[in-house]
Amino acid sequence: MENAPLTIKYIPEAKDYVRASRALAKKSTSFIIMAVLLVLAMAAAAVILLVPSLGEESWDNIAMILLVVGVFYIVYFFAVIPWQLNRAYKKNEHLQVERQFILKDESIGVRIGSEGTELNLDYLEKVVEVDDLYLMIYKDKQKLYFFIPERAFTEEVSEKAFIDYLQDKSISMD
To answer: DSSP assignment, residue 2?
Structure first.
């Protein structure tokens, strides 16, 4: 990249963390498999409870447990996790400070508030586009996830410039 580095800036909102959490879940193969198995188990349990002649009487207890566990996970994913993330956002000022991503030739500078680091591009596994945000998956010694909401793109730094940068650096996009 011969031009000046692109700098993407935004201040995260509580809903960004919820959307990023859901985006990560949607792109996780193990989460998808568990969700499908849970839905199938709940459907089978509902059939067993609604049509008692299909199974033995002892299956009713197992079916009821499967339905309760399934409902718990659905409520947990769609209500409890967002509530926890919103609460954490309100209590933690660090989650509310401006983020900057400085896209350079060999690295991406990440600045969160007054703290910053340089991420080597070799460890950026991929960037996932989900709904109205980009999820950057970075793995060096541990996996790190950064998100950039679409509202962070402005006339100065367009979404197209971001995508062109990723393509120029051969970073895979999902």
So the answer is: -
Q: What are phi and psi of 49, to 5 degrees?
A: -75, -35
Round the CA-based radius of gyration of the chain to a whole number and report it.
21
Asked if 11 and 170 count as a contact pair (C-beta separation under 8 A), the reply is no
Which string of DSSP letters, residue by residue, matches 64-120? HHHHHHHHHHHHIIIIIHHHHHHHHHHH-GGGGS-EEEEE-SSEEEEEETTEEEEEE
Residue 99: Cβ within 10 Å count: 19
Q: Are 110 and 98 in contact (CB under 8 A)?
A: no
Torsion angle of the four alpha carbons 94, 95, 96, 98, in this order, in degrees rounded to the nearest 10: 80
User: 117-138 pLDDT, tens per residue?
Assistant: 999 998 999 999 988 899 999 9
DSSP type of residue 145: E
- Predicted structure pTM score: 0.82
